[in-house]
ATP-dependent DNA helicase RecG (Mucilaginibacter mallensis), 700 residues
Amino acid sequence: MSPFQTPIEYLKGMGLSRADVLKKELQIATFEDLLRHFPYKYIDRTRFYKIREIEPELPHVQVIARLTHKELLGEKHTKRLIFQAQDDTGVMELAWFQGIRWVEKALIPGKAYIIFGKPTFFNGKVQMAHPEIEPYSAEVLQRKGNLTLQPAYSSTEKLKPFSLDSKGIQKLVATLLEQYAKDIHENLPLYIINRFKLVSRVEAYRNIHFPEDAAALNEARHRLKFEELFLLQLKLLKTKLHRTNKFKGNIFGTVGNYFNEFYHHKLPFELTNSQKKVLKEIRQDTQRGVQMNRLLQGDVGSGKTVVALMSMLIAIDNGFQTCIMAPTEILANQHYQTIKSLVGDDFVEVALLTGSTKPKARKILHERLESGDLKILIGTHALIEDKVQYKNLGLVVIDEQHRFGVEQRARLWRKNSIPPHILVMTATPIPRTLAMTLYGDLDISIIDELPAGRKPIETHHLYENQRLRMFGFMKQEIAKGRQIYVVYPLIQESEKLDLKNLEDGAAVMSHEFPAPDYNISIVHGKLKPHEKDYEMQRFIKHETQIMVATTVIEVGVNIPNASVMIIENAERFGLSQLHQLRGRVGRGAEQSYCILMSSHKLSADGRKRLSTMVKTNNGFEIAEIDLELRGPGNIEGTQQSGVLDLKIANIVTDQQLLIQIRQCVEGIFEADPQLALPENQILHHSLQSKDQGLSWDKIS
Ligand code: ADP
Ligand code: MG
């Protein structure tokens, strides 16, 4: 066993009670955890600042200055000792609130000192409270020549009584490195280390804790980031390769009548270049004899459904059955309607299976699936219930992936000896690097253009005091025959408040848009499914002009005549959510609008989100900005993913590195799929070793 899996209490000088709090407070339970408790910053004692150079953002700084006069101010509790200090560029103030008597005796006005502390600013003047201070002399300065970047470790209040503040932790790390540095083994092949000019692993760990200088620290950081991203990609791509080898795939060898008939006689428009490209990718995947696992990303309205349908027709041409799985009944229904209208009558039978399919109809469906007669089935989770048996399911399309887990995908595979090809579609674009990490085991296709002639949605940001203008605009659009969504935020912590928010809003709307001239649908999470459905249907049938809703309408609903999306308290929504909501409009021939209502009080992030929405309609651009604003851990659908528990690398700031590494690892597997070459032996060990700090088990 590697010594780094040793429980932390066995570290020299640790002791049981200290080990205990360390575990509780910082989750440091093993030697490895301590080794990987990296400093959060470094205090630079290599350079001296001039007083004029000191700026508010600086961490601790070091100054050589002469003390001028001193003052004793306040009484009892407010008592403080102030020294003025001066160099040839300016003046600063040093303050002590404790140990005053001692300090007063020790420090001599007129003498020069080396002063070290965290600067603050008051009235434009630099201040330092309780600085470290020692007399300046040439010898002292010489001695300091070998002082370098000092590590600062995060700690907690509870740890301080146990001498486990930053300094205490530093001592432990020093002990650990002293005793066990020899056990830090290299985990990357030599040729990779050389190619990417990396420092050795042990050197990296030494320098991340106790850097020799700034350059060494940078190299250490780079090496550890590299290692983290490299091993993650190695694992992901190995999983992918393994699956490819293990699961054979149905071969869709020919393009036959179904596809051709549809393409030449039924498709009502020209495919966009993006759509053609993706179809080609799917064609290639499904002829290779291995299972396809492809993620299709494209903004709302970019035409993913047609691509899915055409892929399904190829499957049918080759004698297979297909299905589309949607996250909700409404969406399943909508896909059903869309696909039926696209293929027309007497072409290929399309059936719908959801939770509300009656037992009798269900039984017939089951039989027709088992016999293989039924070729296209559309539905919800009901599609993958164990009772449902297909004769030869060849392709499964999953819409809006993040509602279907990996486990559910796997259940589909188990239904056949050869698993069906999987096409996952999502309208939530994910930045490239995130996709590489999160869906590193899937192939990715992107539709990045909208069909020609689509009018971009116009987005406006209005403040509360412009509400009357908004009402006027709504009336004007309704008079033109349009329909309008008004969406309120949903806060998880307070459903009650949400409902109140929505009800208040609905009351205002009803007052402004009274019956019988106007009708309003109200939809929220507290409604029973049939009530919700009833309200939705009224809107779909254009019996109501306004739909007031919480975000329940977020996913997929398609009502082309609804051309205005009003988002209340827009500052409370995340960027990707705003973009998703906006995607509900802009589906018909009319000019569509999105209006973001907010209060005047906006955080910097909130302002950036709203201005981004006004500026661009491009989902990928929005996703990038979202990632920057929120960091990778908060992007929708990623929270539970261990993939993003990165310790030192950051997929936003280390994008370039990640892309390089991805290519490098792909190259390794291409040349040596089994990692059998002698120079790659080390990688087997690295994948199995527990010392890498990544939670492999969480990676699917
Ligand atoms: P998505 O599922 O990506 O949101 P859809 O497949 O529902 O998009 O397509 C949105 C609308 O655009 C549908 O009405 C569809 O028929 C239409 N559409 C799809 N592709 C094209 C195209 N190439 N040219 C014109 N209209 C298209
Ligand atoms: Mg769609």
